[in-house]
Design brief:
heterodimer; A: mainly alpha; Rna Polymerase Sigma Factor, Chain: A; Arc Repressor Mutant, subunit A; 2 domains; 59% helix; elongated; B: 66% helix
Chain lengths: 208, 86
């Protein structure tokens, strides 16, 4: 009788049927995801935590309306996104928000930065704190539409379909935004990668 | 058909995700074999994604989980059906 053997669907059914405390177990694997989703929108730790709590409480209250055909993670992500957006609107009022890119129409330069004097980053270099910081900063600076797609897809590892569904856009849009987000980050981080890069051939394999 | 670098860059994201078709993938791989620049771009982009997925990069506030479950416990307590009070 291990917890492991209870499927998510079963867990949900039991909670809806009255074993409410099991909601703690249901939500545990997704805590991180909920926080990061809200954070990707509000970009403030306190707001993100409050929002994440609110989203989880909302999910709890509305669990009986969750449909089994959907994926719980996608449903929960949608709730987190809505909570984040609500908070952002409140915080910013009507102003300022429109400054952030909301469309993909703009033709930007989305070509990656070439690395001429660099081949592979040694794995231990990825352990460096500065690189993590630079990455966090670069992600925070992404235009909102790119940041949100990137967060769902590459941080929370939702697939293209799930990301599209959660954000209410089509999969093609997700792919375009994801591509641009990755290229922007690659460009921004190249200077950091270069400084830590004594070339060592064949270290980093192709496999992700 | 021979691919140029720009063409490879346009598909780099989908290539990483494994969502390009077989033919394009083969063309990209042939290009990568002899193009140091594209290989470096691919590796650096991949490394960024590895770093992104690493839990230590995007950390949660200390005590986040505890506070969340406390709040949830209060909610669950408060939403208990009335029969408990009888």
């Amino acid at each position: 009788m291990q917890t492991r053997s209870i499927s998510e669907a079963e867990l949900i059914a039991r909670i809806v049927a009255g074993e409410r405390d099991l909601f703690h177990e249901l939500i545990r694997p997704y805590e991180r995801m909920v926080y990061l989703t809200v954070f990707s929108i509000v970009r403030n730790e306190t707001e993100a935590e409050d929002g994440a709590q609110e989203a989880v409480i909302n999910a709890y209250r509305h669990l009986s309306s969750f449909r089994a055909e959907a994926k719980f993670s996608t449903w929960l992500t949608t709730i987190a996104i809505n909570e984040g957006r609500k908070r952002l609107r409140k915080a910013k009022g009507a102003a300022e928000d429109s400054i952030e890119a909301e469309t993909d129409e703009k033709e930007g330069d989305y070509t990656p930065a070439p690395l001429t004097d660099w081949r592979e980053i040694p794995l231990e270099a990825l352990e460096r704190k500065e690189l993590r910081e630079a990455l966090r900063k670069a992600v925070a600076e992404l235009p909102a539409i790119y940041r949100q797609v990137f967060t769902l897809r590459d941080l929370e590892e939702l697939n293209i379909e799930e990301t599209a569904q959660a954000l209410g856009v089509n999969p093609g849009t997700v792919k375009v935004r994801l591509h641009r987000a990755r290229i922007i980050l690659q460009k921004k981080l190249v200077p950091f990668l270069k400084t830590i890069a004594p070339a060592r051939k064949g270290w980093f394999g192709r496999a992700l | 058909m021979k691919l140029d670098c720009k063409h490879v860059w346009e598909h780099i994201s989908e290539y990483i995700d494994g969502s390009v078709d077989v033919q394009l993938r083969e063309e990209i791989e042939r290009h990568l074999e002899h193009c140091e620049i594209c290989s470096a771009i691919l590796d650096s982009t991949r490394n960024i994604l590895i770093l992104t997925a690493d839990d230590r990069t995007f950390e949660l506030p200390v005590g986040y989980s505890e506070r969340l479950h406390e709040r949830l416990a209060r909610e669950i307590e408060g939403s208990e059906p009335d029969l408990k009070k009888k």
